[in-house]
Amino acid sequence: MKSHTRVLVIGGGVVGCSVLYHLTKLGWSDVMLIERSDLTSGSTWHAAGGFHTLNGDTNMAALQGYTIRLYKELEAITGMSCGLHHVGGITLADTPERFDMLKAERAKHRYMGLDTEILSPAEVATFTDGLVNTDGILGALYDPLDGHLDPSGTTHAYARAARMGGAEIVLHNRVLETNPRPDGSWEVVTEKGTIIAEHLVNAAGLWAREVAAMAGVYLPLLPMAHQYLVTDDIPEIMSILAEGREFPHVMDPGGESYLRQEGRGLCIGFYEKPCEAWSVDGTPWGFGHELLNEAFDKIEDSVAFAYRRFPVLERAGVKRVIHGPFTFAPDGNPLIGPVPGLRNYWSACAVMAGFSQGGGMGLALAQWMIEGEVERDPRGFDVARFGTWTTPGYTVPKVIENYQTRFSVAYPNEEKPAARPFRTTPMYDIFAGMRAVFGQQYGLEVVNYHALPGEPLYETPSFKRSNAWEAVAQECRAVRDAVGINEIQNFGKFRVRGAGARAWLDRIMAGRIPAPGKLSLTPMLSPQGKIIGDFTVTCLSETEFQITGSYGAQDQHRRWFEANLDAGVTVENVSDRLTGFQIAGPKARELLDRVTRADVSAAAFRFMEAKRMVVGMADCLVQRVSYTGDLGFEIYCDAMVQRQLWTTLWEAGQDLGLRPFGMRAMMSLRLDKFFGSWGREFSPDYLPGETGIARFIRWDKEFIGKAPALAERQVGPGRKLCAFVVEAVDADVVAYEPIWVDGEVRGFCTSGGYAHGSGVSVALGFLPTEMAVDGLAVEIEILGERRPARLVTAPLWDADGARMRG
């Protein structure tokens, strides 16, 4: 065993071996993997081995597609068999809502290049040789890429391919300590000696929590006990085999089960509601190739349902029961990437669908490590999406909830209730008393809207317009006609200080850094020119700035700031210390004027300016800017005085028609002006020119990502972000719906919704640049139906910005 290595991967499951292989594939040969037992020990060896592409996150779906296509490449490289069975997969829909979800997924696949199709109940019966009882089935989604493989053979193929690329693998060698060194490398103490590693990857699976704790960090994941059954030989399956065919995968979300062929019988697994969290307080080091005791009681209802859906099972004997643990993060997605707060420490954990996602996650981590960023937007699986606020007390109920709802319909407006409320602002009880319906962002309770009298205090999950429609409409009208007030806790906020603060911001931000008392809007780019941040920069003085961005991305942004920090510059995350309100609407200035002695007239306080002033009794930073597109102000204060600030504004605004509004209204109002949103129009998937955010770039300075951004500018973007007015009926664009032009899919939507201020349905999305002309007639596919739409270039409201800037 060597004593020094460039990368040390801890964990010999499918994910660890995939990371090791992809590091060698991308050119790093001085890499090493250590495993406490044998390869596949932990979750890998007892996995059911199924793989599929279906995922609500398009980037995850694409990486799952990469994983599946990779297996033949592995077989060709190594000469080993992965035991591939590309049998195709069918996902059943037994309710209109589930069928809507499948139609929405099929629409996404149109521009992703995935060859899926919607099946009728009769086609389901044909595809499954009549072994599926289609009573109550409305339709299904068929994916020809779905299948299953040999978990052990596949993992060993990854390992052999990695060894062929120069990697070293050491088995039966448990990690005892991981100690950071001053130069950013890691001292890893193992049973067989000490290794110095430039980079350390935690791919320890069931033991990832324990390995992370050695480095002083908590990773929010939990093993869940999962059970599947393998039947004896079934005559109907034997007949299919005799014809040279195989039975397809069948996922029955209504029955919480998945079914596939196993030899001459069937394998069926369950995501049952009475599930079981395993080793909540830590995984024993001695656990490995054991299985858990059979627990038929927890799957009794699921089995009864499966017998009705698949009658052939009732006549089949059970050959064996596999009951073992595998790990979940709170939202079910992997935890991949550089761990914030640690140098050169990487997470490759919680990949619960290892044979659907392991290849893509290995590729993503290797790209991140070697090239500095990932080819695809990693936000859905970035370990930094969970901040230091997570605890085991939060993780356990959220993981249980995710397991229980793994096969549930995933609605675009759904707010899951487990472990809530957890993080709240000083305004939580006041807003709750005003009938607030809350959402959750980065663990924080955020007002989505205020329910009207007589309406329920929750939003009905739906792919169509929900019961929040009228409440949101009234909040939008209050902003446009009078004045609205909204909490601004849910912005990510950082204070940048030091003599070199301006120079550092000039380098890390692509846009103009403002003069004292001024604001600017600026993108932040990666070295490859991708958009990794969308910020407001406020110059408080020549040595102090405030930068405001996405609350949910604050740990991702903090990690980037710290990795690129200059000497003599400090960056402090004040997201939860600095709070306040935004007020917006034609009477916003009059309201502010009533509660401060400062001059807030249009002449004295201009658009994109910032001033310190006392509002009521609170010392505040007030910014003249508004995401609603209306006349507006952002008022920041210390969290300790937020309630007093609220009282001041609320009492002063009663005769002005002051009304609270939530995130649903704000996201509707921005559509009137075609304002982009972080994570939708602006994300690491896109370059600045194609999104239009390049208009904020300052080209006469040097900044990270300038060369590729300039290259895009010189050549011209191949596609352009456009706005559309849609002839929608009862459902609006959410994201990723295909855009049809002359019978062909030529683009996709990034976001949309109903713009209550203008009274129309709006979509934002990409089309080829040469097609992006005003008035272009297109069709946008919403829930399987193509709706007429037209491209518009002038904002629908306050087109010249006179009110917003006046």
UniProtKB/TrEMBL annotation:
It comes from the Bacteria. Residues 371-424 form the FAD dependent oxidoreductase central domain. GO terms for molecular function: dimethylglycine dehydrogenase activity. GO terms for cellular component: cytoplasm. Residues 6-368 form the FAD dependent oxidoreductase domain. InterPro entries: FAD-dep_OxRdtase (IPR006076), FAD/NAD-bd_sf (IPR036188), FAO_M (IPR032503), GcvT/YgfZ_C (IPR029043), GcvT_C (IPR013977), GCVT_N (IPR006222), TrmE/GcvT-like (IPR027266). Residues 719-798 form the Aminomethyltransferase C-terminal domain. Residues 427-701 form the GCVT N-terminal domain. Keywords: Membrane, Oxidoreductase, Transmembrane, Transmembrane helix. Belongs to the GcvT family. This is FAD-dependent oxidoreductase. SUPFAM superfamilies: Aminomethyltransferase beta-barrel domain, FAD-linked reductases, C-terminal domain, FAD/NAD(P)-binding domain, Folate-binding domain. The lineage of its organism: Bacteria, Pseudomonadati, Pseudomonadota, Alphaproteobacteria, Rhodobacterales. It comes from Frigidibacter albus. The chain crosses the membrane at residues 7-24.
